[in-house]
Amino acid sequence: MKKKTEFIFMRHAEPDYTIIDQRHYRGFGNDLAPITQNGIQETINSSKNPLLKDADIIISSPYTRTMQTASVLSKELNINLKVEIDLMEWIPDKDYMYNNYSMVVKWRKHYDENDGKCTYKEDNFEEKTEIISRVKNVLKKYNNYTKVIVITHGMVINALTNVEKPNHNQIIKYILED
What we know:
Helix content is 36%, strand content 13%. With 178 residues, it is an alpha/beta fold. α3 (64-77) links the parallel β2 and β3.
C-alpha cells in the first residue's frame, strides 16, 4: 500500500499593504500586496525547517504574497513551483461586489461566529465546507507525490487543519484523508 502524501501547509509571509493603501486599491487589488523585507528573511529562515526537507514540489495560491513566499522557498530549496488558483484566500462575497474593508470584517466575524456557515439570507461569503472542497480537489491532484509544500492563506489553513489563526510562515503538517 502506498504511503499517503504528506502536505506541508505554510501560511504566506508578512504582507506589506503600504502601496495598496497609497493607491486606494479595493477588492482584488488587496491581493497584489507584496511581502515585507522581514517576511522575505523569515521565509529564508523557514526554508531550514526539517518538515520542508525532501519535498517534491511547492504549490501556491496565485496572490502576490503567497507567490512571493513560494518563490523564495523555491529558490532556497531548489524545488519547482506550481500555481494553483483554487488555493486562493476565502471569498468574502461571491458576487465580488464589496467595496470597503469594513464589509469584509463584518462577514468574517459572521463566518467565525457561525463556524463558517451562511445563516442570513443576505450572506454570500464562501462557506467553510466550500473552502475545504475546493482545496481538497487541488490536493488530490498531487497524491502521486511523497511530500508537497502548500503556500496559502490563514483561513484556508484553518478550514482544513483547525489551527486557529496561523502565524505568517507557520508550517503545519497535513494528511489528506479519503
